[in-house]
Amino acid sequence: MSKPKPPFPDQKQPMPGSEAAMDPKPDYGEDSYKGSGKLKDKKAVITGGDSGIGRAVALAFAREGADVLISYYNEHEDAEKTKQVVEDAGRKAILMPGDIKDSKHCRAIIERAVKEFGRVDILVNNAAHQASFQDVEEISDEEWDVTFRTNIYAMFYLVKAAVPHMQQGSSIINTASINADTPSPQLLAYATTKGAIQNFTGGLAQLLADRGIRVNCVAPGPIWTPLIPSTMPQEKVKNFGKQVPMQRPGQPKEVAVAYVLLASSEASYISGATIAVTGGKPLI
Description:
The chain is an alpha/beta fold. The protein contains eight helices and seven strands, in the order E-H-E-H-E-H-E-H-E-H-E-H-H-H-E. It has a single domain, classed as 3-Layer(aba) Sandwich (Rossmann fold). It is globular and about 45 Å long. The mean pLDDT is 95.
């Protein structure tokens, strides 16, 4: 089946964006993803699970047999839709709104997961903040701080809280970006954190290997999520995805399969890796 290609209609949104206002609507795999028990009875925590890549991962994990805690900021309507797709798959869904820039909230997310599920088998650090700027002088100290606290500090807080509750064979999956290797100048703060995430992943994989916990990251290219119309200039939104060889953005469901692989026991010898999902544009 053909996927939507640019140009796309004008659709500027306020941050952090809503999938309901997007045209075309993102494809999360509701009508196409078929599970096969790869994650039967696993317990997962997904940050940024309300929409975009996070929702597609939650849907795929649930259809593969996992229960899911969905961490999100304040997009309650989108989060309820994610909860519904998890429950429609016959799995347990827990919603946990709040600000992951706060270390106490990160610890509370893991405490809630352990209380509800008894353990954490999979931690997906996916939530992110990004904003576009044409000049470095436009980036405020506060903006730089928000980007780092959301994208990399929270990852550290969550990992530190989760690892004591993870058994051998557990998996940590971090969302990096093609920007880690080929940074967009307009996304200076965001791209810098994504480079940090890739480095964090490689170091942590080595640190946790003797505990039997695998750590990997997924590096998406242009993916059609609510982050795009809410954080990018309209001209970039209109032509989003045109720059990669496939000449279109990826859909969230097309990224989710990489997370399923890395979370599953089939990936037992994959750790410290970056899986590129970039529409044919190679990582450096």
